Structures are given as C-alpha cells and as structure tokens.
C-alpha cells in the first residue's frame, strides 16, 4: 500500500491526536495512572513522531509498531473498568474504540512494505477481523445509547434524528457482517469510511465551530477521523489484495 490514502489519513489523525493531548495536557485513558500529566505529554510526543513516520513509506512500519503498542496498552487500560462495571457498555465501547486504532496499525504494518508472505497475510487478517469486531461494538454502543446518539444528529437533517441514529446503527452492524462473512467487503469498508467521514463533517465540525476551545469536541472529532482512517486502511488492504489476485493467477 505504497500510495494508500488511508495511511496518510491515519498518520495525520494520529498527529492531530498528539497535538490535542499536548494542548490539553490530558488523556482520558491515563486519568487513573499516577503522574498522568507527564505520561500524557510523553505519549503525545511519541504519537506525533510515529504519525510523522507513518507518512513516509520507509518509516511507516516503525511508526505502526509504536502506534500499535500505544493503543494496545490503551485498550488494556479499559479492561479493569469492564471488570468493575460489566453492565456499563461504555467501558466496552472505550476498549474497542482504542482497539480500532490497533487494527489500523496492524494493517499498516503488514502492508507498508514487503515482508514474509505468510506473516504478511496473518497480520493483515488479524487487523482486518479486529476491525470487524470493532464495528460490532460500534453498532452495540449506538444501540444501547440510541437516544444519546440521536441528539448528535443535526436537527435539520431529514427525515429526523432518530431515523439516522437507527440507520447508522444498522449500517455498522451490516458492515460487520459483510467483513466477517466476506460478502461485498470492499463496498462495506468504503461505505463505512464514508459514513464516518460524514459523522466528522455533519456532527463534529459544526461542534468545533460552535465551541472551538472545547477539547472534548476536538477529541471526539479526531477520534472519528482516526477510526475513519482505520476503515480506509481496511478498504485499501482489500483493494490491494483484489488487484494482486489476477497477477498471482497469471504467474501461477
């Protein structure tokens, strides 16, 4: 994926995440960790450097390793909350939101440059199915918090807020089914990317204009962008795999 648009979007989203964390001196995932302000600054600096590394093919793989490690740790930090309050789905949602970044980093690492073919396929498949599981979580999270999701939909958007809350929940579920079953996977990943970009443009961009100094809005907007980038990496991987199949058949 030398010229993968998803790779560039992923890199820019991570750089933005690091900048936002430095400006706010905060990471929700590190709130319960001692000296979290210092750790937040260190992690933010690593994110910015790793995000920059992702933008160049030669350094994309080390950048992906750093980001995969950071977000895997962030995912694990959500586990104690899940154990403590297993009936609160938001804790599961936080885990899978961070884990979607891990899925993107795995796909990026596997496809950034040539490695052993069997290892390449295994890592890419792990990233692919990991993102599919994240889509299930996104659907469940919206389902459990459907009223709250509906309030985020612009009131001017017909036919209504509740309609779009339900429609996007179903869309996440259908995308997960498509990826897990192998049916129309490329279309599903592209439509998921488009939907997430729509969230960014219709929900979070107006929120940023309305309250530009609210770091919560910046955090949500950048998180949506990063998840959209992970979905785009899935689409790039599927497109790359599809284009490689005819050449593989020809050489055989």
The major β-sheet equals: none
Helical percentage: over 70%
Estimate the global geometry from the Cα principal axes.
globular
- What structural class do the secondary elements suggest? mainly alpha
Query: How far do the termini sit from each other?
Result: 23 Å
- Overall pLDDT confidence: 90
Textual characterization of the structure:
By secondary structure, the protein is mainly α. It has one domain (5-243). Helix content is 83%, strand content 0%. The protein is built from 10 helices and no strands.
Question: TL;DR of this structure?
Answer:
The chain has 252 residues and is mostly helical. The protein has helices at 5-24, 36-54, 57-77, 79-84, 89-112, 117-144, 146-152, 161-181, 185-210, 215-251.
Give structural attributes.
mainly alpha, disordered C terminus
Draw up the topology in text.
Blueprint (H helix, E strand, L loop, with lengths): L4 H20 L11 H19 L2 H21 L1 H6 L4 H24 L4 H28 L1 H7 L8 H21 L3 H26 L4 H37 L1
Helix pairs in contact: 1-2, 1-10, 2-3, 3-5, 5-6, 5-10, 6-8, 6-10, 7-8, 8-9, 9-10
């Amino acid at each position: 994926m030398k010229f993968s648009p998803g790779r560039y979007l992923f890199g820019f989203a991570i750089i933005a995440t690091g900048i936002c964390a430095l400006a706010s001196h905060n990471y929700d995932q590190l709130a319960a960790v001692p000296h979290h302000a210092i750790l937040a600054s260190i992690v933010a600096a690593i994110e910015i450097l790793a995000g920059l590394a992702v933008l160049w093919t030669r350094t994309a793989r080390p950048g992906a390793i750093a980001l995969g490690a950071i977000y895997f740790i962030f995912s694990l930090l959500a586990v104690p909350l899940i154990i403590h309050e297993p009936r609160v789905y938001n804790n599961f949602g936080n885990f899978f939101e961070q884990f979607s970044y891990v899925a993107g980093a795995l796909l990026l690492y596997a496809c950034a440059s040539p490695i052993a073919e069997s290892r390449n396929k295994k890592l890419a498949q792990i990233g692919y199915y990991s993102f599919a599981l994240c889509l299930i979580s996104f659907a469940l999270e919206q389902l459990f918090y459907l009223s709250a999701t509906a309030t985020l939909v612009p009131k001017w958007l017909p036919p209504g807020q509740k309609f779009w809350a339900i429609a996007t929940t179903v869309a996440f579920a259908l995308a997960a089914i498509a990826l897990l079953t192998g049916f129309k996977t490329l279309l599903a990943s592209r439509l998921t990317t488009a939907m997430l970009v729509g969230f960014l443009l219709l929900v979070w961009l107006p929120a940023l204009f309305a309250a530009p100094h609210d770091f919560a809005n910046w955090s949500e907007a950048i998180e949506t962008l990063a998840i959209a980038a992970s979905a785009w990496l899935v689409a790039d991987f599927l497109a790359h795999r599809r284009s490689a199949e005819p050449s593989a058949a020809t050489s055989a």
